[in-house]
Write a structure and sequence with these properties.
There is one protein chain. This protein has helices at 11-26, 39-47, 59-63, 71-92, 109-116, 152-177, 186-191, 230-237, 258-267, 299-302, 315-324, 337-347, 360-370, 373-383, 390-406, and strands at 2-8, 30-35, 52-54, 98-103, 120-124, 196-197, 215-216, 243-246, 273-276, 291-294, 308-311, 328-330, 350-352. It has two domains: 2-221 and 388-432, 3-Layer(aba) Sandwich (Rossmann fold), CATH 3.40.50; 230-383, 3-Layer(aba) Sandwich (Rossmann fold), CATH 3.40.50.2000. By secondary structure, the chain is of the alpha/beta class. Helix 9 (258-267) links the parallel strand 8 (243-246) and strand 9. The strands form two sheets. It has a seven-stranded parallel β-sheet with strand order 3-2-1-4-5-6-7, sandwiched between helices. A six-stranded parallel β-sheet has the order 10-9-8-11-12-13, with helices on both faces.
Length: 444
């Protein structure tokens, strides 16, 4: 059996697909992954022996320019990505039994599955963009809603109109070329009425967050057994656990002095500093032997050996730090990151920095609440509740869906063969029943 997994986004969108692909392989299936042609994604997938098909432009080329991407950039990129999916996925998915799409609004992927007659699943790593009467939609390029509009139903309808303005024209053109009927609502067509949520239920109690019939599998984690580099091991062994600071795929356009700020704030607490270079290109600010810089590294192993993790709040990094039992300070930049910052603070396993631009004073203050015995103990307690089987749960569901599709039992959206909430679907409820997410966090 063969499955195609596709995404366009940063490492936080690609690595979970690698984890799902490995889980599928362990169950005897073949997975092909269609993602952006960034070198680090090629290396990631090659390292676990998963075939990669390049799709669309490099993500790094889009997000690490001299300025943050603008609304005009979004309106140019959206039709380009739709065209890339129609150009790439039909061949990649020829003979496949199912197609799963995630990442930046994968408009076009479901159309390809429809044309090929195979089941389609939309997967997401948070619920921020899923329609809900409980909270308003996130910001999106396009005509903004009036400031005095407060009806969530109206706001979500206007969000759908913004998605249509971004993707609708290109999607209609390519669907017509394939002989497919037009789509009235691009967003809801992409999401389906039963999306899959690849997030841990302790970190994100998903069914409380959306009006859709959500399937929560747990996070799709790619196990990492790589040893830490010898020079990093030597630095870790040379003193007390350092504080790790890294912002992953964030270019940190608004915080150009992030490395200096981080070093001074961490030193103010008497800790050594470990800088993760990332797309922000963090580097040493002086010759102090209390600072070390790392590139791509096994964070699953590293985070178990640090005093705290300061990061941007991507879903993957948040999950990795939480599983490691490391206290966190999240400096949120975009999209779902403010939610994860609020969630970490609410769980008592770290602190949410106020805004995307840290200063020495603000980061020092955030670290003060993070570097305490109480926060460390709480982080270790929560770590024991985080699931590690999400990729396997999702792989089993996907193969069952593909098998039903072969027998002609699937609707093409995945709904017809899904078990209902409460049935034995391989999942389990959050172990910490007191953990609940305030919807106000999603508005930040």
């Amino acid at each position: 059996m063969r499955v195609v997994l596709t995404s366009w986004g940063s490492r936080g969108d690609v690595e979970p697909l690698a984890g799902l692909a490995v889980a599928l392989r362990e169950l005897g299936a073949e997975a092909r992954v269609c993602v952006p042609p960034d070198e680090e994604f090629e290396a990631l997938l090659d390292g676990v022996g998963v075939p990669m098909v390049p799709l669309g432009p490099s993500v790094r080329s889009v997000v690490t320019g001299t300025r943050p991407p603008s609304a005009a950039d979004a309106f140019r990129l959206a039709p380009e990505l739709v065209a890339a999916r129609f150009a790439t996925l039909p061949e990649a998915a020829e003979g496949a039994d199912a197609l799963l799409a995630t990442g930046l609004m994968p408009a076009g992927a479901r159309s390809v599955a429809e044309k090929l007659g195979i089941p389609y699943v939309y997967g997401c790593f948070h619920t921020l963009g899923l329609p809900s009467h409980r909270f308003s939609p996130p910001r999106r390029p396009g005509t903004p809603s009036p400031d005095d509009e407060t009806d969530n139903k109206v706001l979500w309808e206007q969000d759908a109109q913004r998605v249509d303005s971004l993707y609708g024209g290109a999607l209609a053109e390519h669907r017509e070329a394939l002989g497919l009927p037009p789509v009235d609502n691009v967003r809801d067509h992409v999401f389906t009425d039963r999306p899959w949520l690849a997030a841990d239920p302790v970190l994100l109690p998903g069914r409380e967050m959306t009006d859709l019939d959500l399937v929560q599998t747990g996070a799709w984690i790619l196990p990492d057994s790589r040893p830490l580099p010898e020079d990093l091991e030597a630095f870790l062994d040379a003193g007390a656990p350092p504080v790790y600071v890294g912002f992953g795929s964030m270019a940190m356009h608004t915080a150009k002095d992030a490395a200096r700020v981080a070093v001074e704030a961490v030193r103010a607490h008497g800790h050594r500093v470990l800088l993760g270079r990332g797309w922000a290109a963090l580097d040493r600010v002086d010759d102090g032997d209390d600072c070390f810089v790392v590139g791509e590294v096994n964070q699953q192993a590293l985070f178990r050996r640090v005093a705290a993790v300061v990061h941007h709040g991507g879903a993957g990094t948040t999950t990795t730090a939480t599983r490691a039992g490391a206290p966190q300070v999240i400096v949120p930049q975009i999209a779902d990151q403010p939610f994860w910052a609020g969630r970490v603070a609410e769980l008592g396993i770290g602190a949410a920095h106020d805004g995307p631009v840290p200063t020495v004073g603000s980061l020092t203050a955030a670290l003060a609440g993070c570097l305490t015995p109480e926060t460390r103990a709480r982080a270790r307690t929560v770590a024991d509740t985080i699931r590690a089987d999400g990729a396997t749960v999702a792989a089993r569901r996907l193969l069952a869906l593909a098998d039903a599709g072969r027998r002609g039992d699937a609707s093409g959206t995945g709904r017809a063969t899904e078990s209902r909430p409460g049935q034995d679907d391989g999942s389990r409820p959050a172990q910490n029943a007191t953990v609940r997410s305030r919807t106000s966090t999603l508005r930040s």
